[in-house]
């Protein structure tokens, strides 16, 4: 054993140490604390929440109490069939079976023992709705809004979403809110909903730097963290884990640099790696074939794979041969006047809307724009399709917005001046402005506009399945995803390949216990979230397939540790 790894006296003692403060990390920490364990959460950033805090917060879980209460008809066999089809050769029966068996259990435990609260989406199709075993409802749940004031003094340390994901400089909204804002001019109910939101936000700004009504991923983290802190979980911000301490092949502690000191922290039950993966690592581009130098990741800068390196140094095995090493998303970027860069992931708010199309350098469409963000980037990875441009006309922009551009009556002049939103008086001028083929764009618009009038996309069948239609405009007929682009001026946004995080991580067993090169569990070492090798093998079957497994396996890891400690089996002994 390396001399540097020799224990020389602990400065702190905990039953569990969690690396990372995202959804998976807080699920593990909260579960452990609710089971009576002492817990430390170590976070490199000066805020907590990680990627989860700026995510949609949704989970994809089979057999939840919410689904049963709604009378949803589903079965484990249907889910297995769907996942076998979408995942392919990377399908791991042991992990999928654990997820199906314990996902609802994890959610039930966290909802009954913590502030966590989810609601079933009444209509939320799987991303491949025409595949065997797919469903239009019952598996996707969304986060219930939360009052950030419940966090007390910790609220100021919760990671704030980027400005482009907020309204009026600091107001959070969810999918339902967005639909109400889009409908406020034609629905008294929507108008009243928006008035109430803005009144609450106005009151918040008298005391806080942003709104305290939290939604989506911010609400998810705040809910778990509130309970964790109430249960005595300690959070060390701006703390860097330098090494894992191994005794007789088991992980028993860590060395951590915190507040200017190097501390030796004992983890009696073990360590859970949940630090968000490696998407922001300097060498991440080597694992992104077909993306190029313009690629934009939504991962925080601290998600650089440090915990993966620490684990592999302790003998852990990394996943190989995934369908994709990243969870893809198209991303645009704005250079603000102060020199700051803001990234916007084009997930569900614009691409599926009628009157918005995507074209490549040849001015040609290359994909069904309403397909999932993961699928969209897969199409971009074909030669000639990255970067691409989202293009719309005045009518669609006024109705729906696009990227960081807001719908009418918001003035998007600053985005035009910054070069983020391109504007032209004709499609030909727009093509020249973008540097794409004007003849190709003209031909594309003729074909698309003719198809839009009939309601059938002859090229890519946009709006042809339930998932597409769920993201379109339900008030627009005959196809909620198709409308001709005819009203000047025309607008465009440049879009690069991007990602929401990495999928390749530490290989685990069904207890979230990390395994070594021979497939044997390493006592005391666990992984969840993006530090855990993707149960979906880097595919993206539906909304919430990263956070759903993250919560589940964070819960499983903490439960396994608690059971071992209760049985008197510490990290130094195989369970």
Task: Explain this structure.
The structure is a single chain. The chain has 575 residues and is α+β, with helices and mostly antiparallel strands. Helices cover 30% and strands 19% of the residues. The chain is built from 15 helices and 22 strands. Strands 1, 2, 8, 9, 10, 11, 21 and 22 form an 8-stranded mixed β-sheet that branches. It has a 4-stranded antiparallel β-sheet with strand order 16-17-19-18. A hairpin with a 5-residue loop joins β14 (331-335) and β15. The protein starts with 11 loop residues before the first strand and ends in a 9-residue tail after the last helix.
Task: Summarize the model shown.
This protein is of the alpha+beta class and 575 residues long. Helix content is 30%, strand content 19%.
Low-confidence stretches: 1-7
Please report the first level of CATH classification, the CATH class of the largest domain: Alpha Beta
CATH architecture descriptor text of the largest domain: 3-Layer(bba) Sandwich
Give the count of helical stretches.
Answer: 15
CATH superfamily of the largest domain, by name, is FAD/NAD(P)-binding domain
* Inertia-based shape: globular
Number of domains: 3
Q: Could you tell me the number of beta strands? A: 22
What CATH calls the topology of the largest domain is FAD/NAD(P)-binding domain
């Amino acid at each position: 054993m390396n001399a540097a790894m020799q224990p020389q006296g602990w400065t702190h003692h905990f039953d569990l140490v969690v690396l990372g403060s995202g959804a998976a990390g807080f699920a593990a920490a909260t579960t452990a604390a609710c089971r009576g364990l002492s817990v430390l959460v170590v976070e490199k950033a000066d805020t907590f929440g990680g990627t989860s805090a700026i995510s949609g917060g949704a989970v994809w879980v089979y057999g939840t109490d919410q689904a049963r209460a709604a009378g949803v008809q589903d079965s484990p066999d249907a889910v297995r069939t769907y996942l076998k089809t979408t995942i392919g050769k990377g399908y791991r029966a042991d992990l999928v079976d654990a997820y199906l068996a314990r996902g609802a259990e994890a959610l039930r435990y966290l909802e009954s023992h913590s502030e966590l609260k989810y609601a079933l989406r009444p209509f939320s199709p799987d991303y491949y709705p025409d595949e065997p075993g797919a469903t239009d409802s019952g598996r996707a749940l969304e986060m219930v809004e939360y009052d950030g004031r419940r966090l007390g003094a910790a609220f100021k340390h919760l990671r704030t979403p980027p400005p482009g994901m907020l309204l009026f400089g600091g107001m959070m909204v969810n999918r339902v809110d967005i639909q109400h804002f889009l409908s406020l001019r034609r629905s008294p109910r929507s108008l009243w909903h928006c008035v109430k939101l803005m009144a609450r936000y106005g009151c918040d700004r008298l005391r806080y730097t942003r709104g305290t009504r939290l939604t989506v991923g911010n609400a998810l983290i705040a809910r778990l963290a509130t309970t964790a802190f109430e249960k005595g979980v300690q959070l060390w911000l701006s703390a860097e884990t330098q090494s894992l301490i191994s005794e007789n092949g088991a992980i028993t502690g860590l060395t951590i640099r915190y507040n200017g000191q190097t501390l030796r922290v004992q983890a009696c039950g073990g360590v859970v790696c949940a630090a968000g993966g490696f998407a922001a690592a300097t060498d991440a581009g080597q694992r992104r074939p077909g993306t190029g130098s313009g690629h934009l990741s939504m991962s925080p800068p601290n998600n650089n794979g440090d915990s993966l390196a620490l684990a592999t140094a302790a003998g852990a095995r990394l996943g190989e041969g995934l369908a994709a090493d990243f969870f893809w998303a198209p991303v645009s970027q704005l250079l603000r006047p102060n020199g700051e860069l803001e990234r916007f992931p084009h997930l569900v708010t614009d691409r599926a809307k009628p009157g918005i199309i995507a074209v490549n350098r040849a001015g040609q469409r290359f994909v069904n724009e309403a397909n999932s963000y993961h699928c969209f980037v897969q199409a971009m990875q074909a030669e000639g399709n990255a970067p691409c441009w989202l293009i719309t006309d005045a009518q669609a922009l006024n109705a729906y917005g696009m990227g960081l551009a807001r719908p009418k009556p918001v003035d998007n002049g600053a985005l035009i001046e910054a070069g983020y939103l391109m504007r032209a008086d004709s499609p030909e001028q727009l093509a020249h402005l973008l540097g794409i083929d004007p003849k190709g764009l003209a031909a594309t618009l003729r074909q698309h506009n003719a198809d839009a009038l009939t309601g059938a996309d002859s090229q890519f069948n946009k709006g042809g399945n339930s998932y597409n239609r769920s993201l379109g405009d339900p008030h627009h007929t005959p196809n909620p995803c198709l409308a001709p682009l005819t009203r000047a001026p025309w607008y465009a946004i440049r879009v690069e390949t991007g990602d929401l995080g990495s999928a390749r991580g530490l290989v685990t067993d069904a207890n979230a216990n990390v395994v070594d090169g021979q497939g044997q569990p390493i006592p005391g070492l666990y992984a969840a979230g993006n530090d855990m090798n993707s149960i979906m093998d880097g595919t993206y079957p539906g909304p919430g397939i990263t956070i759903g497994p993250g919560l589940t396996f964070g819960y499983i890891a903490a439960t396994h540790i608690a059971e071992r400690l209760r049985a008197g089996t510490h990290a130094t002994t195989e369970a």
